[in-house]
Amino acid sequence: MIGSRILGTGSYTPSNIVYNKDIENIVDTSDSWIRERTGIAERRISTGEDTSELAIKSALKALEDSNVDGKEIDLILVATVSPDSLIPSVACNVQKEIGAVNAMAFDINAACSGFIFALDIAKGYIETGRATKALIIGAEVLSKIVNWEDRNTCVLFGDGAGAVVIGKDSEEYISYINCKSVGSKGESLTCDILPMENICTKEVINNNKIQMNGKDIYKFAVKVMEEEFNRIIEKSNIKKDDIDFILPHQANIRMIESVSKKIDIPLSRFIINLDKKGNTSSASIPIALDEANKNGQIKQGSNIVIIGFGGGLTYGSALLKWNK
Ligand code: ACO
C-alpha cells in the first residue's frame, strides 16, 4: 500500500510588523476593538516582496527541513489568491528558483482552504504513483488586495507563506482528507479582477479589493469546523482523546473559542498564531504548522487535525500523524 507523509516544513513572513496601533492611524478603529473582536495584535505586511518571493523563501526552508533537493520534486502546488501575475504562475516562479526541473507546477485558488485542497491533490498524485515528492505552498501578499479604507477587513489580514514537502510512505500519515466547495455562497467574500472595460472609477478599484460579509463567514466557519471535526472522528475511527492538536485556519479567536466549546476540546489543544500573524489566507495553516514543528509543540506520533474554510466558499479538513 502506498501512503504519504509530510517530510518537512518551512515558512517565511516579512520582517515588517504592523501593530493594531499603526492601523489606528489609517482607519477609525482601536487596538482594543481589534483584540477583543478578533484576537489579532499584529500582522506582517510586505514592503516590496511579492508572493513568489515569500513562496520561494518558505519552499527553500521546507526543502532544507526535509533534506530534499529541488530536482527530486515532481509536483509543485501553490495555493494563493494573491499571485504576482496571472501568468506565469507562482508555482512556476518557485520551480525556476529551486531548480525543480523535473516538476509539474501550477497554482490553485480555494482561498483560505487552498492549502488543504493542495494537500488533497498532492496526496492523490503520490498515492496513485504519479508523483514521488511534492512541494505544497500557501503564499499570500493580501496587503495588495485589501482595501485600506475598509475597517471591516483591513484589520484582519497579513502576508506570509508556508510550505511542506510530501513524500510517499508505506503507511498513511495523511490518513483522511475532505474538501468541499459551496459556490452558492460565493457572494459572502469577493475580490474582482479588472473588468473587460478598463474603467478606473473608485468603485471599480474597490471591487478589486477584498469585500466580505463578516457575519456570514463567521457563522459558516463555526458550523463547518464543528462538522469537519466530527466527520474526522466518525470516518477515521480515531478517538477524540487521541487527537493531540487541532490546527484551524487562523481567522478569529472567537470562532476558535466557539468551536472549542462545541466539540469540548480545550483551547490548549488548538495551535494558534493569529495574535502575531493575523489571517494569511492559504498560508495560515502551513505557517502555523511550521512554527509548531520547529518549536517542538508537535512531536513524533502527534495526531493533528487541520481545518480550513474560506472564500468560494470552500472548506476542508485533514488528519495528520506526525512522523519526521
Ligand atoms: N474597528 C472598530 N469598529 C469596527 C471595526 C473595526 N476594525 N470593524 C467593524 N466595526 C464596527 C462595525 O461598524 C459595527 O458598528 P455598528 O454596530 O455601529 O454598526 C460594530 O463594529 C460591530 O461590527 P460587527 O461586524 O457586528 O462585528 P463582529 O463582532 O461581527 O466582528 C469580524 C467582525 C471581526 C469581521 C467578524 O465578523 C469576523 O471575524 N468574521 C469572519 C471574517 C473572516 O474570517 N473572514 C475571512 C475568512 S476567509 C479568508 O480568510 C479569506
TrEMBL record:
Domain Beta-ketoacyl-[acyl-carrier-protein] synthase III N-terminal residue range list: 106-174
A Pfam family of this chain: ACP_syn_III_C
BP GO annotations: fatty acid biosynthetic process
Keyword Secreted: no
Record-linked InterPro entries: ACP_syn_III_C, ACP_syn_III_N, FabH, Thiolase-like
Domain Beta-ketoacyl-[acyl-carrier-protein] synthase III C-terminal: 234-322
Keyword line: Acyltransferase, Cytoplasm, Fatty acid biosynthesis, Fatty acid metabolism, Lipid biosynthesis, Lipid metabolism, Multifunctional enzyme, Transferase
Cellular compartment(s): Cytoplasm
EC number: 2.3.1.180
Domain text: The last Arg residue of the ACP-binding site is essential for the weak association between ACP/AcpP and FabH.
Family, similarity comment: Belongs to the thiolase-like superfamily. FabH family.
Known function: Catalyzes the condensation reaction of fatty acid synthesis by the addition to an acyl acceptor of two carbons from malonyl-ACP. Catalyzes the first condensation reaction which initiates fatty acid synthesis and may therefore play a role in governing the total rate of fatty acid production. Possesses both acetoacetyl-ACP synthase and acetyl transacylase activities. Its substrate specificity determines the biosynthesis of branched-chain and/or straight-chain of fatty acids.
Stored PANTHER family: 3-OXOACYL-[ACYL-CARRIER-PROTEIN] SYNTHASE, BETA-KETOACYL-[ACYL-CARRIER-PROTEIN] SYNTHASE III, CHLOROPLASTIC
Protein name: Beta-ketoacyl-[acyl-carrier-protein] synthase III
Organism listed in the record: Clostridium sulfidigenes
